[in-house]
Write a structure and sequence with these properties.
Its EC number is 1.-.-.-. Belongs to the FMO family. This is Flavin-containing monooxygenase. With about 450 residues, the protein is of the alpha/beta class. The chain has three domains: about 290 residues, FAD/NAD(P)-binding domain, CATH 3.50.50; about 90 residues, FAD/NAD(P)-binding domain, CATH 3.50.50; about 40 residues, no CATH class. The strands form seven sheets. Strands 4-3-2-8-21 form a five-stranded parallel β-sheet, covered by helices on one side. The protein is globular and about 65 Å long.
């Protein structure tokens, strides 16, 4: 238990002229990138990973919670294949091996890629496995970071000049509060704990949510289940024509003892409910005086979705969604390092706040006021990449990556049965082949 850990209070042992130090929280896709780029920038960097290996969300584990207070860190399920091609999932300076023929690959292949990335850039000596960051607190000129070493069951403070928060966002499920959930006598679960489809053999299942995971899990579960009901509020109906035992439904109005009443007035009965409703942004290790609050997944106040305005020697990597994940991680890290290393000067706090308020105001003006969409990008991502590149004087994402990403848009909804058979080949910085043919 954390309460029984030995905590040693010591003074900052580092001399004034020491090398600037960076703490990276997490050794997944974002954390490895932050570590690698920090080292290349001449900083002394350490990545702390509470798990037994690197890879974050790409690690498959059959682990289930032992009690109501237990956390499960993996969301990976059996048989998952990526919904983006590997050609856009590499790093700008380290791509997937061309010997892998398929573009849409398995989670194990992604994990092997991350291991090879760490090995190629010799990151191993700078990663501490089974070391959990349990508290981060700002001091006058640096950060006090308490590290729980699971190997020795001790907790000690270490001091850093900069902090990268790369803890991932697939640990705490976002469960909606729907009327009647307490009355329903079937089984309720979040996709976070989904592992294999055989659990639903010959049963009727309600799946709520038609995002990438909801659509993919529906396709997995329908093979074993007697019938699957897919509840969503998408404006355009997804293609489930090839799923013979899947019926699409509107949002749930309320649950009943054996099923649910839907907003279109229809009702169904079923044995299981699975919520594919996303996750919450949580940062349990950050003290309140870090100056960050999270309200309905709106992490604020951040400058350009990454730099902590109240303590600008801290950066959050990977909050924007509907983006090119690995490339935006790398770009955010390179952007923030320009300021951390003094190559670029941050604007005054008042200006950063004004820019944040302007952008959020524009978002609210474009549609429904929804904090959960504060970090959503979509088409905005391309302006975002241009802005980061221009402001920090860093290389932008190559045009071919942007073009390829656009070609993949929404395929998981409209072409779920066929899109993973596509094979892409990058020809140069501008062009790619799709199934052997040039695509503009």
């Amino acid at each position: 238990m954390r309460e029984t850990l030995l905590v040693k209070m010591i003074k900052n042992p580092n001399p004034v002229d020491r090398k600037r130090r960076v703490c990276v929280i997490g050794a997944g896709t974002a954390g490895l990138c932050a570590l690698k780029n920090s080292l290349e920038a001449g900083l002394e960097a350490v990545a702390y990973e509470r798990g037994r290996e690197i890879g974050g969300t790409w690690i498959f584990s059959e682990e289930m919670p032992k009690n109501d207070y237990d956390e499960v860190h993996s969301s990976m399920y059996e048989g998952l294949r990526t919904n983006l091609p590997k050609e856009v999932m590499g790093y700008p300076d380290y791509a997937y091996d061309n010997d892998i023929e398929d573009s849409f690959i398995t989670s194990h292949q992604v994990l092997n890629f991350l291991r090879s990335y760490a090995e190629h850039f010799k990151l191993g000596p700078h990663i501490k496995l089974q070391h959990e960051v349990i508290r981060v607190r700002p001091r006058l000129d640096d950060w006090e970071v308490y590290i729980w070493d699971h190997n020795t069951n001790t907790c000690d403070p270490v001091y850093y000049d900069f902090v990268y928060v790369c803890n991932g966002h697939y640990t705490e499920p976002d469960m909606p509060d729907v009327e009647g959930m307490d009355l329903y006598e079937g089984k309720l679960m979040h996709s976070h704990l989904y592992r294999t489809a055989d659990k639903f053999k010959d049963d009727k299942v309600l799946i709520i949510g038609a995002g990438p995971s909801g659509m993919d899990i529906t396709n997995h579960v329908r093979v074993e289940a007697k019938h699957v009901y897919l509840s969503h509020h998408l404006a355009t109906t997804p293609n489930t024509a090839f799923m013979g035992n899947v019926t699409q439904k509107t949002d749930v109005e309320r649950f009943t003892k054996n099923g649910a009443l839907f907003k279109d007035g229809s009702s169904e009965s079923f044995d299981h409910v699975m919520f594919c409703t996303g996750y919450k942004y949580t940062f349990p290790c950050l003290s309140t005086d870090v100056g960050i609050q999270v309200i309905d997944n709106f992490v604020q106040p951040l400058w350009k979705h990454c730099i902590n305005i109240n303590n600008p020697t801290m950066a959050f990597i990977g909050l924007p969604f509907n983006v090119i994940p690995t490339h935006i991680f790398d770009m955010q890290v390179r952007f923030t390092l320009k300021f951390f290393t003094g190559q670029r000067e941050l604007p005054p706090r008042e200006q950063m706040i004004a820019e944040l308020e302007k952008e959020i105001g524009q978002r609210w003006d474009c549609g429904v006021y929804n904090r959960k969409k504060a970090h959503q990008m979509g088409e905005r991502q391309f302006d975002y990449y241009n802005e980061l590149a221009r402001m920090a004087g860093i290389d932008n994402i190559k045009p071919v990556i942007l073009k390829l990403m656009k070609d993949c848009g929404k395929k998981y909804i409209f072409e779920l049965d066929t899109y993973r058979t596509n094979r892409y080949t990058i020809v140069d910085d501008e062009n790619f082949l799709k199934n052997g043919k040039i695509t503009n």
